[in-house]
Write a structure and sequence with these properties.
alpha/beta; eight-stranded mixed β-sheet
């Protein structure tokens, strides 16, 4: 079974749909219970709703307890929830409160969930962690602008590398995936279809046991760090 954060819309919703279509039971999370229930109802009986604010330690522990009580394990954690694509800011004069708020969701949220759910991932025969990142986090190609989003995703990539190394002995594959520019509320119009962006994330969520770990990919192909 899989847990997907930020599953009420955009890429998260499509990830949940594609995983359910592959036979996974999917826990679709959203910050409001109404949003979580709506996406579960729309996607069908293989998708279950769960209210989860990734910035809340109490919510993370409650989610872990609910998954443990119902399933006893977690096969896939997709850290998709993200905020603040701050194209209006520059690093030289950025509002650091905005940067901190972005980090709470984009970095500490995934980190918090991994810590809370790791015992359940260790109970899986094929555990996977997928951190939804962005090519904007590539230091190789980085320029200026969008400081809150970019810095938080760079840090998420670093977390991916650390987790992959530390969890190698536990057979947990951990990868960072860029979905590309996708036509969502955050990405805006003009991007590629949501299904195409989600497919690379589902690829990482369903890797074989000898698949890569500690990598940064888009559409199954490596990206420069």
């Amino acid at each position: 079974m899989a847990l997907v954060t930020g599953a009420n819309r955009g890429i998260g919703r499509e990830i949940a749909r594609q995983l359910a279509a592959r036979g996974h039971t999917v826990v679709a999370t959203a910050r409001s219970p109404e949003a979580a229930s709506a996406v579960a109802a729309a996607l069908g009986p293989g998708v279950l709703p769960l209210r989860l604010d990734v910035t809340s330690a109490a919510d993370a522990e409650r989610a872990a307890g609910e998954v443990a009580a119902r399933f006893g394990r977690l096969d896939v954690l997709v850290n998709n929830a993200a905020i603040t694509y701050d194209t209006w800011q520059r690093a030289v004069d950025a509002d650091l409160d905005v940067v901190r708020e972005a980090a709470e969701t984009n970095l500490y949220g995934p980190w918090r969930l991994v810590q809370a759910l790791l015992p359940l991932l260790r109970e899986s025969d094929h555990p996977r962690i997928v951190n939804v990142s962005s090519e904007a986090a590539s230091l190789t190609n980085m320029g200026g602008g969008t400081p809150a989003y970019n810095a938080s995703k760079v840090a998420l990539n670093a977390l991916t590398r650390m987790l992959a190394a530390e969890l190698h002995a536990d057979r947990v594959l951990v990868n960072a995936i860029c979905p590309g520019w996708v036509a969502t509320d955050m990405g805006g119009p003009g991007g590629r279809p949501v299904a195409a962006g989600a497919a690379g994330i589902v690829w990482a969520a369903t890797l074989p046991d000898d698949g890569p770990t500690g990598g940064f990919f888009r559409d199954g192909r490596p990206l420069p760090w």
